[in-house]
Structures are given as structure tokens and as C-alpha cells.
Amino acid sequence: MMMNYSTGEIPFDLPEEVDDCKDILKSNLSKPENTTGDKELYENVYYVLYGYGLPTICVCGFLGNVMNLIILAGKQVHRSLRRAEHAANIGLIALAVADLIFCITAFPSTFLPKDGVFYDTGFLTYYGCYCAAVISIFMLTSTWLTVAMSTERYLAICHPLKSRKILSIQRTKVAIVMVYILSALFNIPVFWRYSIVQKKCNNQTLYTVNMRLLGDDGNLENAYRACWAVVGNFIPLLLLLFFNICLMREIHRSYAMRKRMGNGHCSAVHHHSNDTEASNRITITLISIVVMFFILVAPSEILKQIAFLFGSDLSKNYTYLTIEIITNVMQTINFSANFILYCIINPSFRRTMKEMFCFQYQKLHMDGATEVGSQADSSCPTREKYASLRVHASTGGTMRLKNMANHV
Q1: What's the whole-model pTM score?
Q2: Where does the record place the G-protein coupled receptors family 1 profile domain (predicted)?
Q3: Which of 81, 144, 175, 352 has its CB 3.0 to 4.6 Å from that of 86, i.e. a possible disulfide?
């Protein structure tokens, strides 16, 4: 079937029994007079970033977050932390879980057909229908976990006396569970935003994922999007900005105080300095997570809200679509790069990782040596006898030396 790409129209009428082909074909055509931007640039960026960049980032994010869970949940880390740092560590573990699930759920999106047409009702069809809801859940979860950790660090650093009465490990766990539950409940309407539509085309059944409005008149859809903008973007950004400024100011004061107290040699001061340094490491880690959130996540969310406020059809604006692809990939990097971030800025994380891998290497080496030793014992039955003789001779020589010394 030939199509006129210059006008974006089908050059002849289709039979009535294949009217659905018109909708499918027309949805994949673009009229030059209604498009803006460089379409070729958009297609190249789409091919490179969605074809290679996004799956690579998701795989690296999966491996990195698995490493985060292994290290942060290790016994060595928990033994070296105080209560406040232990609560922050639990928050980092919960964040790693949310980021890990985000990477898993975002990975199949690279295999979705660009034209949105599916030839069966397999996994990709249902994934294309419901992936937006699942991804939104863990995006919101990750955002509010970051807010919750920032709130705890703000109380612990800026209001240490009050934080002792407010903060506890149990309350931290409850807050994490509530964030997961409320994020899932808040995104339930997104599951109804898309539907799978069956169409007939040339005696073949095709499926498309169509968007539908929440409610009949679109008012409910607009209200929900406005709520998402406030709860998912506006409030978290303001809170994170406020907490980050306060935490950076307190860290600056802490370093200045340690510099003034550095001339003393009191052990109590040194112990307090070590505790402050351990607390500051976690605080700096959290500040870095928030800064990375502002750089990588905020642009994508702001772009979506601007598009929503304009209310125009941007599906043929290739400049906007190109920027959207780039910001989406940036957003995926945010959920995948925490492992690299921890390795760069947190010496304790690097040391724990090194000790963990060294321990595993030594364990494997010792197991191998034990196996070789057992084989040697079975092949040489007199080895134990010779070893006992050496010990006896050494003991006897030592006793003779003691007697000579007493005699002198």
C-alpha cells in the first residue's frame, strides 16, 4: 500500500471492512504544515538514546542498585552506625529498592514499537498499557523517600535535641512503608488512563494503546494532573531545596568548629570529631542525592508540567519531543547512578565494599587451600607425625634453655 508522505494522506479510499487501517496509518503520518523542529534530529536522538542508551543505563542501574543493597544491608555497616545514622542507612536501602524496581520496569520500554501498533496481546502490549502507572509509582516513591530522608537529616543536624524525641528506627520504617503505600494509591488512576484497542486491518487483528481521559468531560483528568504536579513535583522540590540549604549551612558550621577545635588534643574532642565526621558523611551523601535529583529529574518533570499548562498538541513538535527524550534519559540516570555517587563521595562505602570483596576473596582462597591441604593429608599419612615431632623438639629445646638460665 503506497502512501503520500508529502501530504500525510492515504491516496485512495479503503474498503469499509478495513476502516481501522485509516486510523492506524494516519496516526503514523505527519503533515509538514503542522510540524515544527528537526524531525531527522529527533529520529537520530530517538534511535541512539532509546535504542542503546536507555537499556544500557537500566542494566547498569540494576547492577548498581543490587550492589547498594548488598553493601548497605551488610552486617559490617550496621555494626558501625549509631541510631541516627542507622535510620538514614535504612532510608538509603529503601531508596535502592525503589530505584532497582524503576530500572527493571523501565527496561522493557526500549522494546516498545515506535508506531504504537502491536500484533498480539502479549507481554509488550500490556506493558505498553500499564508501564506508565508502574513507573510513576516508583518515581513518586523515590522522590518522597528522598524528602523523608532529608527531613530526618534536617532534624538530626539542625535540631539534635528535638530529634532524639521524634526520630527512631521504628518510625523511620513506618515512614518508608507509608511512602510506598501512598505512592501506589496515588497512582491508581493512571492504570485507567490507557486502554488496549483492537482493530481490524486487511484481515489482520492489530492492537493499539490509546489514551483516555479520566471522567467524561476531562475536568477530572485536569484536576488529577494538577494534583500530581503539586504532590509529585512542586512540594518535593521546595522541601528538598529548603532542607538542602539548611544542611549545607550546618555542615559548613561544623567544619569551621572542628577547625577551631583542632588545636586541642583532648580525646573527648577527638571522639566527638569522629562522630561528627561520620554524621557529616551521611549528610553529604544525602545532599549529593538531592543535587543529582535537581539536575536529572527536575527538568523532565518541569517540562511535562509546562506542556500540560500550554495544553496544545506537542506530538508533532519535534523540538519538544527531542528535549523530552533527553530529559527522560537524564531521569533514568538519576535512578541508576547512586552506586557511582556513593563510591565517589563516601569513603566509608568504598571501605566497606573493599573489605567485603577482600573477605570473599580470602574465604575462597582459604577454602581452596583447605581442599588442597586435605588432599595432601590423605596422600601423606606421616605428615601429622612429623609435625608433632617438630613441636616436641621445639618444646624440649625451650625447656633446656630455661634450665640453663636457672643454673647460671
Answers
A1: 0.74
A2: 64-342
A3: 81
